[in-house]
Amino acid sequence: MDWSELFFQGWSGIIRTLIVGTLAYVVLVLFVRISGKRTLAKMNAFDLVVTVALGSTLSAVLLQEAIALAEGATALGLLIALQYLVTFLSVRSKDFAKLVRSQPTLLARSGSYCSAALLDQRLTEDEVLSAVRSQGLDDLDQVEAVILESDGSLSVIPRKG
Question: Which terminus of the chain has fewer CB atoms gathered within 10 Å of its CB, N or C?
Fold first, then answer.
């Protein structure tokens, strides 16, 4: 094994990466602009998976010489088109939306934890309290509700008055 190949295998690979990388980036930006803002929104676990898949596909196009730019652009376009189709269907059909989107979960209400929900969602009381404190509140008694949103964030609704 030639150890020098670990660090440098020739200019052709670097030039290919520069050219294909630039073009693949332009293709991805164009596709995302055409498909709309929702394409890369991390609204739920499904959206996150698509975002990761886009990054993985772009990486493969950049680094694997066996993948031509046209194939990579097709793969990126396919992922974005499928994401568009899923979001299109999910805003028009509640049943389809339930299939691909998780529902918000009530974790605490009126100063008390919902223990079963915490177990189901694999969260601790300390994690909920951390979210409460991040909203400038001292403890759970100051909270009307804490909700685990479909995107994984915690919403804290303070008590009124």
Answer: C
Taking only the tens place, the pLDDT of each residue in 111-152 is 999 999 999 999 999 999 999 999 999 989 999 999 998 778
Question: How confident is the model over 10-65, as pLDDT tens digits?
Answer: 888 889 889 998 999 899 888 888 877 666 665 667 777 888 898 999 999 988 98
DSSP string, 80-124: HHHHHHHHHHHHH-HHHHHHHSPPPEEEEETTEE-HHHHHHHT--
Q: Which CATH class is domain 105-158?
A: alpha beta
Note the pTM of the prediction, 2 decimals.
Answer: 0.67
Alpha-carbon distance 48 to 41, whole Å?
8
